[in-house]
Amino acid sequence: MKKFSIITFGCQMNVRDSHIIREKLLEENYIEESPENCDFVVINTCSVRKKAENKAKVYVREYKKKGKSVIVAGCIPHHDEKNLLKIGADIVIGTKNYAFIHKIIKEWQNQKKPESFLNRTPKKEIFEPIKKPEDISTFVDIMHGCDNFCSFCVVPYTRGREVSRDAFEIIEEIKCLVKQGVKEITLIGQNVNSYFDGKYDFAELLAIIEEIPGKFWVKYSSPNPRDFSYKVIKTIKNSEKISRWFHMPLQSGSTKVLKLMKRDYTKEEYLDLINLIRGELPEAVITTDTITGFPGEDEKDFEETLDVVRKVKFDMAFMFKYSRRPRTPASFLKNQLSERVKAERLDKLIKEVTKGILERRKERIGKVYEILILEKAEKYRGYSKGITRENVKILIKGEFEKGAFITCKIKELKGHSLIGENLKEAQKCIL
Ligand code: SF4
């Protein structure tokens, strides 16, 4: 059992965890292979929505049938451990013991009977640094877990209580990544703005990162509007590296539904926060998450969500139908809505949000941005994919080196894509 493959579902935290698992296994001389050619497959699962969960379980059964050994990691083990062993998992591990996955595999190989190692959690929370970045953009985790207990969310039950990572461990990891050519760092945690390592809060952490030498940008995900402070906004305003992209999950625009969700802010407070951010940082990019069809949401509540969308004009949104998750308080609420009603409202919401997105993109035509080149645009010959510090994706004419920072002027909006031209190239053309 030397050849492994990793299949990752879900959030940025899972992507990062899969990277840590990969580094650990490669350090132990395991060989990475495609799922078809491996001896064992690690399926890093997500349980935020039923759909993602069902898909992962299909994979477990399928790879078992193909004669692979199957390791199930991620969030599903934290609430469905026994069932995973029943459907074919050989090893079940949780989100806390990736640091010693290699030891768990060795132990399992000695007895070869399906086993859960979920309770093998380390005494102290482990934050494994990434040693070899795979790309110019990398996730750095600053905290694990969440204490908010939004009524629809499984994360507090799968990722546990909030633990913030020591600020200097984070700084050392970022310095090491920047030395290896990383240009875009995304700080991740389930609720980054409640970061506090006992000495530094989130704003102070950002200010320390700003002092790290080198040309790179810093983004973060996900904050919670509930306790997003003016101090953080000010710190960002006084920085060069920190993105003016604010991913502010709204979830619902109705204060009644926000209460049922236990989100702990009102429609008005959310709008005030957005106005505060835009007041201080007019160039701010605002994106969001929404849940449509939450139990008890009526037409009037849904209108409130549409009202916020019209007022804010988000630059992007991740929009979902409410998905009933096991043992979450919302799953016991009365007035669960039908899939038809949820789908109809989601449709309407997507239309309204898209109007705002296109309006915001049109406003960028003619403007000049510094962008980071991410890769060649496979679908558009002779173009490169780039991104601004504010996380706006741009297609730029010409082929540029990955990781280069160039200045570009937005020429047009083609469908949903912003098309830019490199200013230097344009000047050369003029001369
Ligand atoms: S803040 Fe986010 S991760 Fe935490 S419980 Fe709420 S939705 Fe889940």
* Largest beta-sheet characterization: 6 strands, parallel
Task: Provide the low-confidence segments as ranges.
Answer: none
> Which distinct ligands sit in these coordinates?
iron/sulfur cluster
CATH architecture of the largest domain: Alpha-Beta Horseshoe
Structural class: alpha/beta
User: Order of strands in the sheet with the most strands?
Assistant: 2-1-3-4-5-6
Query: How many strand elements?
Result: 19
Number of domains: 3
What's the CATH topology name of the largest domain?
pyruvate-formate lyase- activating enzyme
Computed over alpha carbons, the radius of gyration is 23 Å
Summarize the structure.
The chain is of the alpha/beta class. It contains 13 helices and 19 strands. Helix content is 35%, strand content 22%.
How are the secondary structure elements laid out?
Blueprint: E1 3-8, H1 12-27, E2 31-32, E3 40-45, H2 50-65, E4 69-74, H3 77-86, E5 91-92, H4 101-111, E6 115-116, E7 137-141, E8 143-144, H5 155-158, E9 163-164, H6 167-179, E10 184-188, H7 202-210, E11 217-221, H8 230-237, E12 245-247, H9 255-260, H10 267-280, E13 285-292, H11 299-312, E14 316-321, H12 339-362, E15 368-376, E16 383-388, E17 393-397, E18 405-414, E19 417-422, H13 423-430
Parallel strand pairs: 1-2, 1-3, 3-4, 4-5, 5-6, 7-10, 10-11, 12-13, 13-14, 17-19
Antiparallel strand pairs: 8-9, 15-16, 15-18, 16-17, 18-19
The site of iron/sulfur cluster has 10 residues, from helix 5.
